[in-house]
Fold this sequence. Notes:
Blueprint: H1 2-8, H2 16-20, H3 26-35, H4 39-48, H5 54-57, H6 66-69, H7 75-99, H8 105-115, H9 119-125, E1 138-142, E2 156-159, H10 160-166, E3 172-175, E4 178-185, E5 195-200, E6 206-210, E7 232-237, E8 243-245, E9 264-267, E10 272-281, E11 284-300, E12 307-310, E13 316-318, E14 328-329, E15 335-336, E16 340-357, H11 368-383, E17 391-396, E18 406-411, H12 426-442, H13 472-482
Parallel strand pairs: 1-8, 7-16
Antiparallel strand pairs: 1-2, 3-4, 4-8, 5-6, 5-7, 9-11, 10-11, 11-16, 12-13, 12-16, 14-15, 16-18, 17-18
Amino acid sequence: MLADFWRQHENAFGKVEDFFFNPTNIPALLGEYLQSKPQHILESLKRIVPENMHDAMGFDDWSWVKYLLDPDIGVLTMAELEVTEDVKALDEVYNERTAQHRYADHILRAINTIMGRELIDYLANHNVLPKYGFPVDVVELQLPHVDDGDVPELELQRELRIAISEYAPGSQVVAGGRLWTSRYLKRIPQKAWPKYRYAICECGNYKSVLADTGIELGECDRCNKPLEKAKEKGFFVIPEFGFIADNAVEKPSTSKPERTYSLYPNFAGKADEGRSIHMEANSMTITATAASHGKIAVLNTAGDAKFMICNTCGYAKVNSRMANDTVHKNPQGIDCHGSFQRLALGYEFETDILQMDFGIYGNNKDGFWLSLLYAILEGAAEALNIERQDIDGCLYPVSGSMYRPALILFDDVPGGAGHVNRIADETALKDVLNAALKRVSQCECGGEKGDASCYGCLRNYRNQRWHDVLNRGMVMEFLKMLL
Ligand SMILES: [Zn+2]
Ligand SMILES: [Zn+2]
Ligand SMILES: [Zn+2]
């Protein structure tokens, strides 16, 4: 349908700017076009969607259009609102600063970045277009030219979600018989990374806002504490122009390349709820709710040190006391005296999620909820035959208490793949919990009581940040009581 529309309005295709900031009001034009109920659109929709769903989709009376363009629920309307509000807020700050003769070029460059984003990526990331199976927001790790002839042209690409870990400054990649170290966040003339301010409340709740707009983080919407006072907070950028590797290239040695920092997912509290089921277990009620469009934010904070990133050339290294005032080489190999900013790398995406609540049950033992989360993720992979790396999870303080959080399981693919939604089913939920119990019972770490964790039960590369507190014994005890 959109392809058909774009064929008629070629100037509305390309970048975010062409569609949402076109002198012609393109979304309104699209609305008018659909109001004319073009017959060939209806026919092609009916061809691609199974017949038993035609009524539910509201094809014949054209009520499906509301899911796209309704002022309150339309996905395209919401995508439009988000980008136009962001640009408007930055625009106001820009005008204010220029009127006061203050430096404002960085604001203009952030606006350029937002308006210059690929329209297809933007629409896919805001659920207007499906993205099952095809990659979105792909970035490159650009390699320096090596002068010895026999190196084939290499193209290293990853989705941003993965690149913020694998291509993060300091990370090493082996390709074409060489060891490359990522060193720069690539910059583009006339563009700058929009900066996001984020905080993780004491209760565990995550929130982010576009910085430089004057919009404040405000209060935590779970426990009402002021987020300015949160211990974990700062700024992140989305390294959307990609990365550049260091000019110093090495031969791979037998030792493993420098490992990247693991990511750190958070649920941003936004989702469209779907099917919900309850399970009674030993006077406790477990609720499993499937939802789509759950917003997940992944952060790479380099442990907690964050990255020092040069404002001028994008040179970046993990923050240390040594790193901050040294002259460094820019990607062209020339001395750069640029100043640094301390930033995390981040990326937000929407996917299918499953929220699991344990009613009023509370537990304040260190690591209990994380241990339960990782046991259930292992159980889900085992019982439902899902690749473990295709799902992940985090805690969400739905009641405002870190001792009574919900578990959020999510499909670790932008757009979702329908994996974790399958757990919103009584049989499936039981199978998952039983498989989780089996996983923690069969391991041998920590002796009989299981007062430990290892790669055989709860640990994996991605949850390194929590290894110290993961404990299979607590989960074993809890699940035995439950099942
Ligand atoms: Zn809070
Ligand atoms: Zn620099
Ligand atoms: Zn173990």
